[in-house]
Amino acid sequence: MAAEQQYAKAKISVWWDIENCQVPKGCEPHSIAQNIRSALVDMNYCGPVSIYAYGDTNRIPASVQQGLNTTGIALNHVPAGVKDASNKKILVDMLFWALDNPAPCNYLLICGDRDFSNALHQLRMRKYNILLAQPQKASLSLVAAAKCVWQWTSLLAGGRPLTNTDGSVDNSVHAPVSEPLLMPDNVLLEELVNHLHFEVEHMGLKLMSNIFLSFSLLTICISF
Predict the structure, then answer these.
(1) From which domain of life does this come (predicted)?
(2) Helix, strand or coil for residue 8?
């Protein structure tokens, strides 16, 4: 379960759906960033950490926003009213992050939605290490992409990941799902990025206009 040598000192990008995995009442927001870093170090992930949180900031108390912002967490406002808006924005930013950060690097996703499954498997096949923090239940296909899985409340407190006695991930807390485990190729990833670009543009969020050029660069940067 501990980090492999090539990932131990590699960069760690944390992608947090703050609406899906909320800050619990009574939690000290100033401690979240440090607790996440402590949990990672405990598993021998000692590289530089960047944390990006996404959600409708109008629904997040000012005290929580201040606590996150002052501890180095980049809080990205995603307007309410569009279905899966945060997921789409996170997916696009995750894929573009790979442009500037070729493998080996680490992705830690804080979410439980199956929408991320295809992208995580694509990144894993290109030598990125995938970590996951989930709410009480998460899609099995999402969990299958991850090397290490935490309960969100455990990661929040700086705790250790889920394990069985043999060291494997405990699937008993994961939501049963019927979808097959998809391992998409480059064509499917291109379709995903183009679809996300279209959706996000119509949400009024700024992205690069030439998605095909960006995808070509992405393919080069994260290829084997």
Answers:
(1) Eukaryota
(2) helix
Concatenate the DSSP letters of all residues of 88-153 into one string. HHHHHHHHHHHHHSPSS-EEEEE---GGGHHHHHHHHHTT-EEEEEE-S--BHHHHHT-SEEEEHH
Of 111, 83, 102, 103, which Cα lies nearest the Cα of 15?
A: 111
Closest CA to 1 of 169, 170, 173: 169
| Domain boundaries, position 202 | 185-222
Residue-wise pLDDT for 97-145, tens only, equals 998 999 999 999 999 988 899 899 999 999 999 999 999 877 888 899 9
C-alpha 219/C-alpha 179 separation (Å) is 26
Backbone angles phi, psi at 178, to 5 degrees: -105, -10
- Total domain count, the chain: 2
Q: Give the global pTM.
A: 0.77
Confirm if 72 and 170 have CB atoms less than 8 A apart. no
Which neighbouring-strand residues pair with 53? 16, 75
Q: Classify residue 208: in a domain, yes or no.
A: yes
What is the C-alpha to C-alpha distance for residues 60 and 83, in angstroms, rounded to an integer? Answer: 18
- Measure the CA–CA gap between 128 and 41, rounded to whole angstroms: 18
Q: Cα angle at 14 between 13 and 16, to 5 degrees?
A: 150
Backbone phi and psi for residue 172, each to the nearest 5 degrees, phi listed first: -70, -20
In a domain, 178, yes or no: no
